[in-house]
Design the sequence.
């Protein structure tokens, strides 16, 4: 029983670690989703302003307006580059968190297997002990029968 208690404690600790790793993975996935959404918004903004430049250039734009637009597009491109790095880092964090969660889950399964194996071993020992007691009881009963002792006192 003492061995079972120790195994249960270790399995519970492994489960807590797995739960913690799952929370980290969830957080990393949320950060990745947020970074991707922001990147998509910036890319959409860039596409809209590129379309606006094409429309305005057909209508005629001053050199100052073109320079302003180019400076603005440069800022958007810098923001896109920065957000692309953030999204890539978030993806790396997801991969690491996923690997960590899988590792913790494997460890938890190992403890569960050990507990199960221990339970089978204990059960087999109990069954063996029960068979031994039943054999001893049957052997005694057979000896009493052979000796003419039916177990009733006269």
Sequence:
């Amino acid at each position: 029983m003492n061995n079972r208690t120790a195994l249960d404690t270790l399995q519970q600790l492994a489960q807590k670690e797995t739960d913690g790793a799952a929370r980290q993975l969830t957080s990393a996935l949320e950060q990745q989703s947020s970074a991707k959404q922001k990147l998509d918004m910036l890319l959409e903004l860039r596409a809209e302003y590129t379309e606006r430049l094409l429309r305005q250039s057909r209508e005629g734009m001053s050199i100052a307006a073109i320079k302003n637009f180019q400076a603005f597009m440069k800022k958007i491109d810098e923001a896109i580059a920065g957000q692309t790095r953030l999204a890539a880092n978030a993806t790396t964090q997801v991969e690491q968190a996923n690997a960590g969660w899988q590792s913790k889950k494997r460890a938890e399964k190992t403890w569960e297997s050990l507990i199960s194996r221990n339970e089978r071993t204990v059960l087999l020992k109990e069954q063996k002990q029960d068979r031994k007691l039943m054999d001893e009881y049957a052997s005694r009963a057979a000896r009493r029968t052979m000796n003419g002792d039916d177990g009733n006192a006269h």
Remarks:
- The chain has one domain: 2-146.
- The domain at 2-146 is CATH 1.10.287.1700 (Helix Hairpins).
- Residues 63-146 form the longest helix (84 residues).
